[in-house]
User: Fold Exonuclease from Dioszegia hungarica.
Amino acid sequence: MFKSLGLLQTSRCPDEPCLRPYCFFAHTQATAAAGPSRLPVGVTGKGEPALKKRKVDDKSSVKPLEVEIKSGVSRLKGAEGVPKAATPARVSGTEGIKSPAKARVTGDGVAPSTSGARVSTSTRPGDMKMSKQPYADRQKALQTLFTQYTKLYTGISTLDPDLASRCSIAEELDISASSTDLSAYKRAIHHAAVSVSRRAPPDALAHPSVGTVRVSREATLKVEKEAASRLTFERCKRYLLPVSAFPTWRYPEPNDPALIQGDTEPDGLGSTQKCDRCGVDFVVSSANLKERMGECVYHFGRLLPEKRDGKKMWLYSCCQKERGAVGCYKGVHIFNEREDDVKLASRVGFKLVKDQVEENRASGRVEAFAEVVGMDCEMIYTTAGYSLARATIVDEKGETIFDELVRQTATILDLNTRFSGITQDNLDGAVMDIKAVRAAACMFIGPETIIVGHGLENDLRAMRLLHDKVIDTAVLIPHHKGAPFRRALRDLVKEKLGYFIQQQATSTGHSSAEDAKATLEVLKWKVRDDAAHE
Assistant:
């Protein structure tokens, strides 16, 4: 190695503190502050000797590399961020050159604009870390990318003048960091430039064509996935549950006239019913509910098989006790008539969607029918049996378009908060009864609307609604044992979609909006899966 000439050792280092491991400027306070010399980036004369390496004790991290593009593009900056191109900084004879303002890199791979940032015009190497590629090659590659990004963003350049600069910088940094040698680096730059040149010109900053190659590819795939799984009537009608299969899956018969006539027996006060929890016969009463607390001892969990000491045992999920053990929870007796549609109709009569829509039109209600909706309801126990407490409807995008609590006309026996998520404070603010909620729901559900749900027959019964266009995800992806067995919605979501729902169900109850959205996502998965195999 040739010995360094040390021509810059009399010049004061412009950076305080200096983090360059091989700095060729002076670092003593006694040295006169001379204007910083400029060194062309990545270009050395053949006769110029290379700097001699020296050891340094400071092993702290070195600032990322900065390279200035002579055509006006912002300088390269590493993982710290990509600053926006700005006006040159003012330089005084004693202060030297001001350090460029640092910008934060956002998750999309392009740093946000930083108005008012002042960037040095110096072409010196600056705070550079060791690079696998020569600086001259990187400068040329950066100019190539900048040219392509500038052409691509011509239509939106007024929205963000520095967008092409930031994208080209971020792109080059990604390629430089991932390339193993110079030839691989040049190939990657070429492919990136070609990829950018083939993109559709964006008309907005949110367009999928905006961003680095990786970001644009991810955005494009997301848009294509959404388009492929969009739920429309034509795309979903093949999954409709046939009316002939309604009895198999215990759906209320939409053409049964006996279900239309109702309201003859609004509650079950004085009748003898079988407790839905402990199985004991009792007389329905709304008196002395606090004093009666504890008359019903039961397990709220399910019986699940488990092996202990090599032996299969059936244990309650709530307390891990064996089958037949005394209940672990106390309450009042409740009853459920969900299997008897005629009895349910005597409490509150059923109504066809088309009939409810006609009533809405006669009363001047606004219609906003959707092609496909997801629906989920939460129920509580009253002296009228299993009663609707909340109805939630979400649209095809998963946005909640209807969510209403139901004012109860019968005495509440148990809010079933552990599963319903309903509290007394919630119901205190309810203003609409079940009939009003049903009428309001049919502003979004029309005769041709497809309702999607999981175990949807329970929701239709709770709302006393008759409809023949339903998709049940429990039927769509059936249990391996067939009807009437069903897989839990949370298991389908975990298996097909890869995430978890109902994580807080044991304490705060289910989220009806979350469950309704999950059923739509399962259906979207089914649509994509079938399309991929056709």
About this structure: Residues 512-532 form the longest helix (21 residues).
